[in-house]
Structures are given as C-alpha cells and as structure tokens.
Amino acid sequence: MHLELRHLRSLRAIHDQGGLARAAEVLNLTQSALSHQIKALEEQAGVELFLRKTKPLRLSAAGMRLLRTAQQILPLVEAAEAEFRAVEIGRAGRLHVAMECHHCFDWLLPVLDQFRRAWPEVDLDIRSSLALKALPALQRGQVDMVISSDPDQMDGITYQPLFDYAPMLVVAATHPLAAKGHAEPADLAAETLITYPMDRARLDVFSQFLDPAGIEPAHVRQVEQTAIALMLIASGRGVAVMPDWVLRPQAGNPELALLPLGRKGMLRRLYAALRSEDLQQPFMSHVLRLARTEPVRMMRGANSA
Questions:
Q1: Where are the alpha helices (DSSP H) in 141-254?
Q2: Residue 298 host element (H or E)
Q3: Per-residue confidence at 90, pLDDT binned at 50, 70, 90?
Q4: Which of 47, 64, 89 is the C-terminal boundary of a domain?
Q5: Which of 31, 192, 204, 225 has its Cβ near the most Cβ atoms within 10 Å?
C-alpha cells in the first residue's frame, strides 16, 4: 500500500467536514478529484474506508484506524512545516542592539560575532549612542533589543532574563578596604569613584548602593575603557564597581582586591528587552540562547586559565 500525506489529509478532511463536497472545498480540490483519490486508496488497501450509505458520510472500521494514524502523523508534519516556514521567513531581518551597561561590550561582542555567522542575512548593529534613551527607542522601533538590568514596565515590551551577576568593588591591593573584606556605602564617601560615562541612574553603584544610603563619593571620574579603569585603580587613583564576570580575570591580580557590596554581597539580573511581537522571530530565540551561555563560557574560561 502506497500511502501519501495527501491521502491522510483527505481522509481527515472528509471525516471533519462530514462529506466530500465540503472536504473538497477545504482541500482546494474538485469533488470528483477527491472521490477518485479515495477510490484509488481503497483499491490499494483492498478495503472500503467509508460507509457510503450513511449520511453524513462515516468512516468504516478500517477508515477509523487510518484516521488515527493521520491524527498522530499530520500534527507532527504540520509543526515541522510551520517551523521550516518560520525559519525561512526569519532568515532576513534586523537586530539593532542598544545597551544600558557600558561593560556589556566585553560580553556582547562575542555573542554577536557567533550570531552573525549563523544569520548572515540579518542586519546587525550596536546603537550605543542611544544608551540613555534605549527603552523609548525600542518602543518606537529604532532598535530591536535593549540590554538592561533595570526593567521598566512599558506597553508592548517584554523582558527576557539573561543571567545574574554580582557587582563588586575593586580597589588597589594596598587600600585599607582590602583588609576589611567587604564594602559599605559610607566607605566610598572619601573616595574617587571611577565609572563608565553613563547616566547615573543606570549605574548599580549609585542606584543600588550609594543613593539608597544617601552617600556621595568625594569625586567621580568617568573612564571609557575597563582596562584603563583597572590601571588607575591599581595605581591608587580611585575605586570602581564592576560586575563579577568582568572582574573574574583579575581574581589573581596581586595589585587589586575585589570586595562584595555589603556583608552578604549583592545580586543583580541582566535582561534583554524586546518588542513582544518580535519574540516569534527565529533569530531572536537564537541570539537569546547565545546571550545566556556566553557569560558562563567566559567565566569557565577564566577559571581554567
């Protein structure tokens, strides 16, 4: 017996529609063509699949058995076809990313490098100039993803969790705080705080640590590059708060000390903000998967070095 998917679809349609005429319309066939198809299938099977003297048309025992096969197989085939269509439709697109964390360049660039190899037809860009107004830009359609640790409820925007991180204070190894083993907000009152050039409200050291305690550092110095900030800190020219995954390669640096914020430390979560309708894009699922695994790879790599 030579059974084809069209046979299973025809059998299911006749059963669901209760007759040849309506089934033929659903299948975009003539009633005559559908009738000939079923007759040819019955000839191959050597049994009748329908009880033709009943109204509405009913399946025979053999027909019911074949229908159960159709009901098992066709949903799997249709799900696979839908997935293939989605992948094909999603092959081309746009992924413009804005960041509300300056240090995320170190983590995001390897993610996007892997992504562009898998999705060469997707227009890829990082829009760092929109960092201060990234979420409104996402809502307006100017960017397609925002990396943020401060989710704001906005219509049409959904937040996908990426990974957790611990903000750490990094000081020179000779700094008095190194012996204390942790940092309290008041410890920074006499310090030069080195930060990235970002809005104060988007910096964990202010929003989560100093501002709630009503503490201001003695001075604030903005530095673009992590490597330069670490050199300044090692020279005793300031302190900074950075994520643990950024500082992990410095764990064995004898010139630096890494301290948790507060006795118990602090834990924060990084999110990818997307427009809700874009969650269905196949390439969005892929970039989110990469974004969640790259920090783990970086930390493991640092530990094994």
A1: 176-180, 204, 211-213, 226-234, 244-247
A2: helix 282-304
A3: low
A4: 89
A5: 204
Tokens of 42: 């019955």
Contact 175, 239 (CB under 8 A): yes
Overall domain count for the chain = 3
Distance between CA atoms of residues 266 and 251, nearest Å:
18
Indicate which CATH number applies to the domain containing 107.
3.40.190.10
Q: Between the CA of residue 223 and those of 38, 63, 232, what are the distances in Å?
A: 76, 75, 10
Beta-sheet pairing, 268-275 with 145-148:
antiparallel
Q: In this structure, are 148 and 83 located in the same domain?
A: no
Band of pLDDT at residue 188, cut at 50, 70 and 90: very high
Nearest Cα neighbor of 286 from 87, 143, 144 is 87
Q: Which of 253, 255, 263, 258 is nearest to 243 (CA)?
A: 258
Q: Domain span at residue 236?
A: 167-260
238, 231, 225: which is closest to 193 by C-alpha? 238
Cα dihedral value 196, 201, 204, 205, nearest 10: 80
Given a cut of 90, whether residue 201 has pLDDT beyond it is: no
How many angstroms separate the Cα of 297 from the Cα of each of 107, 153, 242, 253, 288? 10, 31, 19, 21, 15
Strands 145-148 and 93-99: parallel
Which amino acid type is present at position 35? S
Q: What is the pLDDT of residue 85?
A: 64
Structure tokens of 123? 């227009």
CA-based R_g, the chain, Å = 30
Same domain, 184 and 52: no
The side-by-side arrangement of strands in the sheet containing 157-165 is 122-126, 93-99, 145-148, 268-275, 157-165
